[in-house]
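Hey,
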Amino acid sequence: MTHKLTLDQARRIAVGAQLLDANRPGDVVGVAEQLGAIKIDPTATIAPAENTILWSRIGATYEPSQLTKAVEQDHLLFEFDGAFRPISLLPLMLPAMRRWPQRPRTREWLEANDRFRTDVLARLRADGPLLASDIPDTAQVTRPPDGWYGSNQVVHMLDFLQRQGEVAVVRREGRNRVWDLAERVYPVGMPEYEFDEAERLLNERRLQAAGIAKQKSPWTPVGEAGESAVIEGSTRKYRVDPQALAALEQDDGGRVAFLNPYDPMLFDRPRLQELFEFEYVLEQFKPKPQRKYGFFAHPILLGDRFVGMLDAEVDREAEMLVVNAVHEFLPFDPEEDEMVRAEIDALAEWLGVGVRAW
């Protein structure tokens, strides 16, 4: 059976799957289980990505300490590849991790640095948990700095060993990761899956997070998960999550949400354009004269429409949320204006600062 959906229904499915409708979730772990990943990024014009992503779902009751507790004390979330993920995903990820890497260049670097790899693992086994800066760089072959990584090869090796499931992040000290052997971090007795079965289940989890996705999408690969769907006015083939489809009948309406530029709702740019007619460009890396909305402007979602961009930053010395501009794609009506202003006030209250309005 192929479901025939209106564009409005498709948007509502996507918004609901991302927990951005009026029915707010209540806890950090529940959000992670639904979204699959909570991006970590230190850019904090307002707050770091992991915190604004959670605040935009949970609201005023969210506190960053809840995330720290879920990761470091309860071990219900783990850090992997720049995101916090629910521990329930780990058994599904391990089969692919054991096959990594596929790129010849990466395999060659690891093979050339086999002694270095042994040194890093031995140091962690003897003295871990450790910061990368606590581990000597004994690399035989180096990778040049690329703008993201410096010359220290330990960081590269730890990232590669994490992708292979041999080391893991225990916690963070500030923004720095603390590492240990995966066998001492990850839970024991996890279920085992063959590669194909794990990939099938991962596709289902990706579709759960998206609600609806193109059947062949490099941004949101879902394979044959869910059920077939078409959207009015489009010839593209989609897959829809049956649970998200059923949730349309319990639609609780919409609300305003400010989305961090690294929010998962924004990740699949082609889908964003197709479903929401929103062409999002992160201007963080553009020269200032070329920016239209601001260095780290947050898209404004109202119900199932993107209606504008919030250009704001926190002035910690003045204890103010400074709103430089609210860019309206179309002029807000009085009710929309009131809703956006109320959400700005709620954001400032959560941050514990006042508001300096535009």
